[in-house]
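sry for the spam today, last one i promise. C-alpha cells for design, 326 residues
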C-alpha cells in the first residue's frame, strides 16, 4: 500500500537539510498468526538469545486469553554456577510437581496446589525437572559427584525462566509497528501486543510451597508446626468506588490465569529457514503493484494536533470566565 501525503502537507526543504532517501510505504495485511514484541530489559544488546550465542530458548509457552508468556533459556554450568543450589532447586520443583503444582506465580493466578489438582490449570512443568517424573533417592552429594549425569537426567536446574504479561493493542493506546525495508520500500506490520520478559523465580515459589504444604500436614496431624520463613502477605480490605472496580478486574485476571492451560509453542532461531520464510512472506506486501493506495484522512494541522501533547495554558484560557461588568 503506497503512502501519499495530503495536498497541504508540502514543506520547503532548505539546502542544508536535503532529502537523502525516499521510500514507498506499505502496510501488510493482517496475518493469521499473532505478532508480539518481546522486550528483555535485563539483557545486553550484544548477548541475544540466539543459537549462535548458545542461548536459544528451549521452551516457549503462552496463555493467549489471560495474556501470559514464558520462555526457558539454558544456563551455562561451566562457571559462575552453584551446582549444589542447582540440584536443590531442581529437587524442590520436582517435589512440588508431585504434590500437584504445575506452575507458579502470577501466570498461574498465585494459586496453590489444591486448585491445580482439580485440573483448573495444567500444562508443562516449569524448569529442568520436567524430564524427571519421580523423586530420586540420591543425595545431593551423590549427584554432585556425578554432576554431568545428574544434569543429563534433568536433576539440575540449568535453565532460567523469563516471563511477562502481554500488553495488547487497544483503542487509546499507541500503535506499534514492525518495519522491514526491501529496496526502496518500507513494509509496516502491526504488533498484536508487547511483553517485557523478566526473571521468574519459580524455584523459590516451589520451596515456599513445599514448606507451606508440610506445615499444613503437621497441623492436620496435630503436630507442632515447623518453622516457615517469613513471607510477605497481601492485606485484605473492602474496596469502594474505583478501587473496587480495579480489584474486581485483578481478581478476574487471576482467576482466568489459573483456569487457562499453557499452550506450548515451537521456537525457531532467527537464522532458521522457517523464520526467513515468515519474514519474506508474512512481513512484506507481495503484490505491490495492485496494493490499494493509502490516503490520509487528516489535514496537516489535524495530524500535528493528534501527535502533540496538550497545552494546559490553552485549556486554562478557554475555561476562564470573563470578568463581570461593573
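last one done:
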Amino acid at each position: 500500500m503506497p503512502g501519499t501525503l495530503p495536498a497541504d502537507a508540502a514543506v520547503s526543504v532548505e539546502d542544508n537539510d536535503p532529502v537523502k532517501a525516499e521510500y514507498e510505504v506499505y502496510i501488510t495485511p493482517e496475518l493469521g498468526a499473532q505478532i508480539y514484541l518481546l522486550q528483555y530489559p535485563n539483557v545486553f544488546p550484544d548477548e541475544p538469545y540466539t543459537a549462535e550465542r548458545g542461548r536459544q530458548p528451549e521452551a516457549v509457552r503462552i496463555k493467549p486469553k489471560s495474556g501470559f508468556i514464558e520462555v526457558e533459556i539454558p544456563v551455562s554450568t561451566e562457571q559462575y554456577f552453584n551446582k549444589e543450589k542447582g540440584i536443590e532447586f531442581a529437587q524442590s520443583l520436582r517435589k512440588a510437581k508431585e504434590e500437584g503444582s504445575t506452575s507458579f506465580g502470577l501466570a498461574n493466578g498465585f494459586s496453590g496446589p489444591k486448585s491445580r489438582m482439580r485440573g483448573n490449570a495444567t500444562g508443562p512443568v516449569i524448569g529442568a525437572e520436567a524430564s524427571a517424573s519421580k523423586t530420586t533417592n540420591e543425595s545431593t552429594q551423590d549427584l554432585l559427584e556425578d554432576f554431568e549425569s545428574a544434569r543429563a537426567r534433568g536433576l539440575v536446574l540449568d535453565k532460567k525462566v523469563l516471563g511477562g504479561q502481554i500488553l495488547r493493542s487497544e483503542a487509546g493506546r499507541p500503535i506499534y509497528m514492525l518495519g522491514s525495508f526491501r529496496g526502496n520500500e518500507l513494509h509496516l506490520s502491526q504488533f498484536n501486543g508487547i511483553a517485557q520478559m523478566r526473571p521468574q523465580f519459580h524455584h523459590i515459589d516451589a520451596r515456599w510451597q513445599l514448606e507451606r504444604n508440610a506445615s499444613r500436614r503437621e497441623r492436620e496431624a496435630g503436630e507442632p508446626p515447623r518453622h516457615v520463613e517469613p513471607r510477605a502477605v497481601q492485606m485484605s480490605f473492602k474496596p469502594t468506588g474505583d478501587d473496587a472496580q480495579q480489584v474486581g478486574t485483578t481478581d478476574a485476571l487471576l482467576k482466568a490465569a489459573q483456569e487457562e492451560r499453557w499452550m506450548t509453542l515451537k521456537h525457531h532461531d532467527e537464522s532458521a529457514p522457517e523464520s526467513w520464510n515468515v519474514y519474506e512472506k508474512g512481513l512484506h506486501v507481495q503484490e505491490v503493484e495492485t496494493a490499494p493506495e493509502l490516503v490520509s484522512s487528516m489535514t496537516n494541522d489535524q495530524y500535528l494536533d493528534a501527535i502533540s501533547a496538550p497545552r494546559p495554558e490553552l485549556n486554562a484560557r478557554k475555561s476562564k470566565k470573563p470578568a463581570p461588568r461593573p
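The first strand starts at residue 24 and ends at 27. ok im logging off now
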